[in-house]
Amino acid sequence: MYEFKYHRPTTVRQAANLLAKNEDAKLIAGGHTLVPVMKQRLAAPPHLIDLTRIDGLSGIEMKGRALAIGATTTHAEVADSATVREAIPALAELAGVIGDPAVRHKGTIGGSLANNDPTADYPAACLALGATIVTNKRRIKAEDFFQGLFTTALEADEIVTRVLFPLPKKAAYEKFRNQASRYALVGVFVARMPSEVRVAVTGAGADGVFRLTAFEEALKKRFSSKVLDGLPVSAEGLNSDLHGSADYRAHLIGVLARRAVDAANNRA
Amino acid sequence: MAKISLVVNGNPVTATIDPRTLLVQFLREHLRLTGTHVGCDTSQCGACVVHLDGKAVKSCTTLAVMADGGSVTTIEGLAAEGAPLHPMQEAFREHHGLQCGFCTPGMIMTAVDMVHRKGHDLDDHTIREELEGNLCRCTGYQNIVLSIAAGARAMAKSDLA
What we know:
The complex is a heterodimer.
Chain A: E1 5-7, H1 12-21, E2 26-28, H2 34-39, E3 47-50, E4 60-63, E5 66-70, H3 75-80, H4 82-87, H5 89-95, H6 101-104, H7 109-115, H8 122-129, E6 132-135, E7 139-141, H9 142-145, E8 160-166, E9 170-177, E10 184-192, E11 197-202, E12 210-211, H10 213-221, H11 246-266
Parallel strand pairs in A: 1-3, 2-3
Antiparallel strand pairs in A: 4-5, 5-8, 6-7, 6-8, 9-10, 10-11, 11-12
Chain B: E1 2-8, E2 11-17, H1 23-30, E3 49-52, E4 55-58, E5 71-73, H2 87-94, H3 104-118, H4 124-130, H5 141-156
Parallel strand pairs in B: 1-5
Antiparallel strand pairs in B: 1-2, 3-4, 3-5
């Protein structure tokens, strides 16, 4: 790991000022992506800005009709939250299958979203549920936030402060894990919202998380896994690597989407 | 350099460190608490698991500077020196839950955290799921799972948490 200067702001404004003032500074919260890439010297930020001592950045509450989750809330806190389990059980389940128990004690929702790893789980939930990502400057809709591999709409001095999730009528997430890394080889989040159905896919797309509109339209007519039978998924634009071909990933998308619809329908 | 103060195994510690120092380096190289191991160094294997503010974390992926003000428990802190072993340690001894022993400190710290979160009556499935982040390259999982189930029950009757 290369040297860096460590900063510990106590307000979002201080953190934003530090970001604006120091070129190539990086924010850190759980650090479970950033620290490994710094150890490998794939990243060498000259400044690290620790967000974990800022009051009010962490926490879970209902805000009107939306579930609000603070940016530095850990995966374990989301997975164990009675509020999340009641409002969007699929989201609690998703958080509970990220990494392993020790990783979930550190990793945060804001970090996962800002990093936009193409195999991360949370981006699928945000895109499928139509979440709004709130920053120190503005509100960004999930469909505008994710902009390709490890790329988001966030500006250089912009900090995610919380995420607002509208409540679905039904939802579920199914993932097929890479046997070695345990990241999603493919993950599919299906959400039946009051006026639409949204299906988001992570792990498979060469440009990161994406929506599967053909499935959404079919499921909007009837929310049953049967309507997906025989509906083809194109392998175009999907990743092909030693873990699985694009065709295999396309096949998995169909399988996991059907499982997710069944799981959403079977939820008591 | 950064000054940090934290509590390690009940003892207050203050040090001036390079902010790059990983928590596991701080424990092993600065405090000479070498019970915590570095296996993969990539947050996969769990040999470095310690408790930070009561929660199991991978100390190879935690900056020591971010633990400032916190409380750390390592394998050395589970039971006082010279005192009887912690019930989870004793269960690993009794049920032969180790072969080469390299993963054992992390396994035990993960197991104790598991009991804190999931209670004293742990079934096989729960234990195996919860061990997702701990690897035993001797593949001695059968007895590790047996040990954790027994240790969890024994912890219910013990003063040591």
